[in-house]
Amino acid sequence: MLEKLPDVVGHALREQRAGIEKTVYRQLDLRAGTAAITLTSLAFADHAPIPALYTADGAGHSPPLAWSGVPVAARSLLLIVEDADAPTPQPLVHAIAVEISPHETGLSEGALKSHDHEGEGVKTGRNSYLGKSWLPPDPPPGHGVHRYVFQIFALAEGEPFSGTPGRDAVVEALRDRALASGCLIGTYERPDTAIKVGKGMTRDAAVGIENMT
Question: pTM to 2 decimals?
Answer without folding.
Answer: 0.84
